[in-house]
Each structure stands twice: as structure tokens, then as C-alpha cells.
Amino acid sequence: MSTSKIGKVLESSPNAILIEINDEKIFETHKKDFQIGKYLEIDEGNLNKVIAVIQNIKSNASDAGLKFLVQTQPIGYIENEEFHRGSAVIPSPTEPVSVAEDSTIKLIYDSNKDFNFPFGKLVQNKTIDLKIDANKFFGKHIALVGSTGSGKSCTVAKILQDAVGIDKKKNQNAAQQKNAHIIIFDIHSEYKSAFDLHSDEKFNLNNLDAESLKLPYWLMNSEELESLFIEGNENNHHNQVSQFKRAVILNKEKHNPTLKDKINYDTPVYFDINEVYNYIWNLNNEVMGKLASENCPKLSNGTLLTDPEKKDYFNNKLDFITQSTAAATKASNGAFYGEFNRFISRLETKLSDKRLHFILNAKKEDSTSFQTSDFGDILKQFLGYLDKSNVTIIDLSGIPFEVLSITVSLISRLVFDFAFHYSKIKHAKDEQNDIPFMIVCEKAHNYIPKTGGAEYKASKKSIERIAKEGRKYGLSLMVVSQRPSKVSETIFSQCNNFISLRLTNVNDQSYVKALMPENSNAIADILPNLGSGECLIVGDATLIPSVVKLDLPDPQPKSQSVKFRDEWHKDWKDVSFEEIIKRWKKED
């Protein structure tokens, strides 16, 4: 413990302690210790020591020279050689204050055996490793924020590499694979390089992009299907929804006869979207025979369609009789005649769009469509169980924007449902979930924004459900964003751990400070002044708010900016436009 007294307490409260230093020589001697974010220790009257973090420093001139007022915030206390968080112990005015020396800092960070996961070096003392409680860190939701260029991607990669045992391009668990399960939504294709090791390291990376991801449409729930196929602002929206729902349920029953009594709109079983299209097309062109005892759909060859469920509508586009008022051929248009012209046009556009084949035309290796019986293999695909992968990367860079939200929603919802049902099975045996998952939402503001239209509804609902309920079922989140003030408040409010790199936007700074625990507000003032790779970590997983610098990940993600001046200074380069356009048009 420090014995160098530098001042005394003037005012004291649970949230703020004002310290006076009335000797300019003492201040100059310890000037390097009087920096925002550094720690002081204060006698409590007994053998206890209160630890406070520096918030603000002011100087006042007097006849005796300069005096200094140091505003601090108490963050914990040391009792019986062990550090405790909180402000249960508050010093009285006149109590002496000293600089927290290395032995004190080490005691703070080493006094609890649960804090054993290395998390970088303290910026204020690079000889000290910050260790966090990994169970509280990964088991409770994490918010990781920082402006562009602050080192956010490298920080994420380093944390995840440490979690799965990658260090300096080596797999530390090559001899025996561990049970880590991480799913990364990678919106700019950055993270593959961070986990792509040499084959000798025996680290299987499950990288799924728009070409390899198989996500059959029949796994979607009602909201996701309607978000993809139905415009919410059209006048006949309710008719589109009701008839599309009817068609989907009937088609699911047609292709899954043994499950007929258990099927509903959301049941994840196979149906044929092309048959549903036929059904809607036939409704849109339906003509009713109106001769005596007819009053049902009638084809041009005179055939009457008497099935009330209209199952024939699935098979082909039918040729109906022409509308007529003549007594001999009396026929009138059906209830939805011409009603679904725009709906049908939209269906045709979606079904023919090659960019959406991973959803609307997903095929197995034998070129056949996925069926209900393939549900297990589809689920294993993005849970990493096809090739025992600790890390699964969902590369969203090639996913069209109009289905980005649906893709995120569908995968995250299926992972949640898997965790839910697995947990229930384990709970029935009086056991806990033993295969917990973490979902990493990179660039989260792109698909779970604070505000936005119907296009974000699906992904927001799925991720917010995980934020609110996931931890009970062994599913946690790491939410990563350079614009935290633009991300869903519901999600950030559920995060128990915050990692913030440099933030330059004032709104983002204020937003993050408001989310942090009260005893972290002071140190959060440092956010705009953090160096590249430096971060502030607060929350349940760390004993006290700390500013640390992590080592660079090895290998690194591909997040480096293009060096414009260097490239512009090189000789002119020709480009193969044909190759680019071919890839653009999905002709490969």
C-alpha cells in the first residue's frame, strides 16, 4: 500500500469524492499520476482503503500558491487484503489520500480467483494484466462499440481467438477440440482471415456465404415470409396476407400428410413456393360458373372445380372460362379476380432473382430440393455440427439488402429455438444446457437499428428476443457497432458488459455513458481520447472499470483501410470489366 500522502478529502458522497492538494510541489512530483482515469486510494479511518478514479482536476490560486481540487468517483474498497466493488465504504472529510501504487493495483486485479481470463494490459500500467470473469463475460450479453478506425474488428477477433484457443496462428486446442460455439454475422467479409489456419492446426472454420449458405424459404415463419413477399402499404394487403397464409398452410399439409393435424403457418416443414405462386395466380384469374347449380370455379373446357380447398390450383396455371352475362354461358369473375396483379408480379420477380437462390432455390449436393427430413442437416449447417466447427461465420456481404434482415432473423431465431428446446430437454433431467452459443452481431446498426421501417422488423424481433431471454437458455450476444446510438435500445439495455473503443460522435458518447453503470460515468469521459486499440471495459465481468490495450490478433481480420495515396502513386492498372460484370450478374 502507498504511504505517500498527497492530499485530503474535502467532500464525500457515494458518487463523488472531492480531494484537495494544497502543495504545488507535491502535485508536480506526482503529475503523471494525476490523469483522467487513474486511481487514488483514500484512508477510511480503519484499515480499509477506498479506491477512487480521477474524473476532473482544477487549480485555484491563493496567497500560498496553487491549490488543486481533484474530483473523483469511488469504485470500490479494499478490506482484509481483498478488493470489493461498490461504494459501501465512504471516507470522511480530512481523511488522507495517496496515489494507488502498483501493489494496490495488482491486489485489485488479482484478489479474486474467478477473474482469470486475460484481457490485455492496463494502459496506465502496462506491467499489469487485466483479467476478467469469463463466465460473466461470455455468459452475459456484451456491447462492443467504437468509431471507424478505432480497432474494433481487431478487438472482436482477438477476444474470440482467445475464447477458442487461437494464438499466433496456432490452435492451442489442436490435440483435443473444445466445446466453444460462436456464430458471427459478418457483414463485410472481414473475419474469415482471422480464423483461417493452416490445415496442420486442425481448426475447422465453418464459413457460409451467399454461395454456400443453404437457407430454404420453408424454414421462415409467417412474419419473415410476409416481409419477403408482401408489401405492407398496399390497399389489399389484408387479402394478400389471408390468401397467402391459406395457400402456404394447405401446401404444407399436401407435402406433409402425416403431420397434417400439427401444421400451422409457422411450422418449419417443406412446402413448394412455386405451387403457392400457382395458387395465387389462379385466384387472381378465377372465373365462377353461374349456370344453375354451378356457382363454383369453371375451366374453359367446362370442368367444374368443386373442391372448397382448391387444391387443383397448386398444380398448374389453369385456363378458366371467359366472364359472360349471356344466359347460356353465364360466368362472373371470382372474388379476387385481378386483385393480386402486383402481388403476382412481385412473386415472379423474387422467384427469378438469382441473388435469392440460397433462399428460394436452395439445393442439396445432388441438385434436389431440401425436404422436411433435411431439417436436421440444415440446422447443423450454421451451428457448426456438420464439420465440428467452433466458429461459424455467416458472410452477409453477398446477401441482397432486401433479404438481409430476413436472413439474420431466420438464423438467429432457429439458433434460439434450438437452444430453447435443448435446454428444456436438459432441464427435464435436472441438468443445465452444456452447449452454450454466442452470436456476434457485427455492424449491428445495419439490421437491428433503433428506428426503421418494416424491412428491419424480422431481425429486430429475433435479436431482441435473444437479448431478453437468451441467457436462460445458454445463448448470449456480442453486439458490435460504430454507431451505438443507432442500435435498438432494447438490445443494448440488456447488455451487462461494455467495451468501448474511441468514440468521436458526441451523441454516441452520451448514449454509451448513459448505458454504463453509475460508477463508470467518470472514466467514460476518456472515450474520445482513447488511442487505436485501447478500450474501456466495464460491467459484471471486470472488478472495476479499466482502460486496456489488447494485443493484435494473429491472424488478423481483413479490416484494414485501403491506402489511397500509396495506390494512387503506383502506375495505372487495367481492370477486367468482363470478370467483374460476370460476377455482378451471378453468371459464374
Report on this model:
This protein is of the alpha+beta class. It folds into three domains: 5-111, Elongation Factor Tu (Ef-tu), domain 3 (Beta Barrel); 131-216 and 362-557 and 564-568, Rossmann fold (3-Layer(aba) Sandwich), CATH 3.40.50; 219-352, no CATH class. 29% of the residues lie in helices and 21% in strands. It has 17 helices and 23 strands. The strands form four sheets. Strands 9-8-23-22-21-10-20-19-13-18-14 form an eleven-stranded mixed β-sheet, sandwiched between helices. α8 (273-285) packs antiparallel against α9. The longest helix has 25 residues, at 404-428. The protein is elongated, with a radius of gyration of 31 Å. 41% of the residues are buried. The model has no long low-confidence stretch (mean pLDDT 89).
Secondary structure elements and pairings:
Elements: E1 5-12, E2 17-21, H1 24-29, E3 39-43, E4 49-62, E5 65-79, E6 82-85, E7 96-99, H2 102-110, E8 117-122, E9 129-132, H3 134-138, E10 142-145, H4 152-164, E11 166-167, E12 170-171, E13 182-186, H5 192-195, E14 205-208, H6 222-229, H7 237-255, H8 273-285, E15 287-289, E16 296-297, E17 331-333, H9 341-352, H10 357-360, H11 375-383, E18 391-395, H12 404-428, E19 437-441, H13 457-469, E20 475-481, H14 489-493, E21 497-500, H15 506-515, E22 534-539, E23 546-549, H16 564-568, H17 577-584
Parallel strand pairs: 10-20, 10-21, 13-18, 13-19, 14-18, 19-20
Antiparallel strand pairs: 1-2, 1-7, 2-5, 3-4, 3-7, 4-5, 5-6, 8-9, 8-23, 11-12, 15-16, 15-17, 21-22, 22-23
Helix pairs in contact: 7-8, 8-9, 12-13
